[in-house]
Every structure is written in structure tokens, then in C-alpha cells.
Amino acid sequence: MAAIPSLLRRLAIVVATTAMVILLPSPSVAGDPDLLQDICVADLTSTVKVNGYACKAAAAVTADDFYFSGLGGAGNTSASAYGSAVTGANVEKVPGLNTLGVSMSRIDYAPGGGLNPPHTHPRATEMVFVLQGTLDVGFVTAANNRLVARTLAPGDVFVFPRGLVHFQRNAGDGPAAVLSAFNSQLPGTQSLAAALFAASPELPDAVLAKAFQVGTKEVDKIKARLAPKKA
Ligand SMILES: *[C@@H]1O[C@H](CO)[C@@H](O)[C@H](O)[C@H]1NC(C)=O
To answer: Is 144 annotated as a binding-site member?
Structure first.
């Protein structure tokens, strides 16, 4: 009777495969952790340290905790050397977003090359919707440094995958603006130029000189430009 051992062998394979699938780590969650209650309005004054913000007392919650009117108008693009202005509507401005895993921002770009310089959002994928103007946008893959870029017009949408370096630049003669959506209550923004050349305390010149394959004079020049107070 060779049929029974063969059946047992097949059964053993099915059991082993099923066990492997169950025991393998579950796929990671590509966004903020899920919420455990209806609302947890951020108490931005609390000193309690948790992943996010502590919830304020339910009795103190008002509609204003879920409201923000700051995205209607253009930000001041003259206030930055890059000619762009980011206005966030994240948990810091809208405390009701705490634990909800979403946020928005508006970005304005000055005519003639206003730039949102290369940066990453460690905690969110970003989707931009062009309100006005023409923009050159792009991101670079981590796998092989491939630039994925194109030009956007009003009404267009573009995606910057979580954690990847990306930029937007005004390619037109008039003002440009986008509305951004994020799958995080606070995506975090790390600008590459500032992180490397305007950190406090400073990154050693030797580190930057070798990383960028230039001399320390060039490094000091960039540091001085990005942090004029130290020059
Ligand atoms: C915009 O920023 C510039 C530079 O900081 C400042 O001089 C100007 O007053 C600001 N404009 C408005 C409308 O706030």
C-alpha cells in the first residue's frame, strides 16, 4: 500500500507550508499606527511622552480641534531663500488629527524657479494636487538612484513614495501652488541640504568633504550660505 505514505507526505507538506505562512512576519504597515478609539484630540501642552500626543479630556474637545483655515491663502515665498513656502495642516495645527494617520499641506512657489528643495518625509507618502502654475517635480528611488520626474499642470496629481528624496520647482512665469495629502498626522520633513550643511552641532567638514568628493573650502562655503549667522 504505497498510497497511504504518499498521502501522508502530501499532508505533511500542506501542514508545513501553512505553518510557514502563519509564522512569517506579517507585512509592515506603511503609515501611522491604527487608532484604538473614536477620537484622541492631541493635548499639545501635555508632557506625557507617547507615540503621537496624549489625548485631551473629552469634555474639553471642541469643533475647532478639527478645524484649520490656513490653507486658503498663499504662503509667503519671499521669507525663504528657496522661494517656496510650506503651510502645514498637520496634528500641530489640527489637534483632532492625532492618531488618525492623515494630514495635508499647501505649498506655494515663487515665479521664476521657486523651489521646494530635495527632502524626504520619513513617515508618509505624499500626493500633490496642482492648484495653479507649472511645476517640475521628481523623486529618486533608493534601489538604484533612478530619477522619476515630469512636468505638472493645474489639476494634475503626482505621488512621492514614502521616504524617497523628492523636490518640486516652479517651471512657469507665474506663481504656482499645490495641495499635498499625507498618510501620517505628522509626516516629518528632512531637507537634505539643511540636514547635512546646517546641522547643529555641525557635521565635521571631513565627513562632508569626503562624502561629496570636494575640498573643505567648498564645504565651508555651503555651510556659510545655509547658515548665514555663522559666516
Ligand atoms: C514676507 O516675508 C518677507 C521676508 O521675510 C517680509 O519682508 C514680508 O513682510 C513678508 N510679507 C508678508 C505679507 O508677510
So the answer is: no
Q: Is the pTM of this model over 0.70?
A: yes
The reply to whether 125 and 217 lie within a common domain is no
Q: Is 220 within the bounds of a domain?
A: yes
8-state DSSP, 193: H
Ligand 1, atom 5, lies closest to the CA of 79
User: How far is C-alpha 127 from the geometric centre of its chain's CA atoms?
Assistant: 10
Q: What CATH number does residue 107 fall under?
A: 2.60.120.10
Report whether 92 belongs to an annotated binding site. no
Is the distance from the beta carbon of residue 78 to the nearest atom of ligand 1 less than 6 Å? yes
Average pLDDT over residues 155-179: 98
Assess whether the C-beta atom of 79 lies below 6 angstroms from ligand 1.
yes
Same domain, 145 and 203: no
Q: Examine the pLDDT at 1 and tell me if it is beyond 50.
A: no
Ligand 1 centroid, distance to 93 Cα (angstroms): 21
Give per-residue pLDDT as tens, 9-33. 766 666 666 665 555 555 566 789 8
- Residue 93: count of CB within 10 angstroms of its CB: 17
Tell the residue number behind the cell numbers 508632557, with chain if given.
Answer: 47
Q: Which cell numbers hold the place of 49?
A: 511622552
Domain that holds residue 161: 69-89+101-186
What does the alpha-carbon distance between residue 153 and residue 177 come to, in Å, rounded to a whole number?
10
Ligand 1 midpoint to CA 80 (Å)? 10
Q: Whose CA is nearest to atom 6 of ligand 1?
A: 79
